[in-house]
Design brief:
The chain has about 70 residues and is mostly helical. The protein is about 70% helix and about 0% strand. The chain has one domain.
């Protein structure tokens, strides 16, 4: 649920919401309140930690491929 739709004080992030936030989080586009709630969720949710690590590894791999292609030119 977007921050503007959350009741005041409701700072929980669900597994689905966390997955939806990953791209924006890596781009630094997640509001601080949501980022903090996501961090708390990651502390208690092993599957989300694993998914985030896998997502980040995939992004890093794609970026490294882009760098290799740029070096070849």
């Amino acid at each position: 649920m977007p921050d503007e739709e959350r009741p005041e004080g409701d700072e929980k992030v669900t597994c689905r919401e966390l997955c939806d936030l990953l791209s924006d989080d890596l781009a630094g586009e997640v509001p601080a309140r949501t980022r903090a709630a996501a961090a708390l969720h990651l502390l208690v949710c092993g599957p989300c930690r694993a998914y985030r690590a896998s997502y980040r590894a995939t992004v890093d791999l794609v970026r490294s491929c882009d760098e290799l292609e740029a070096d070849d030119e």
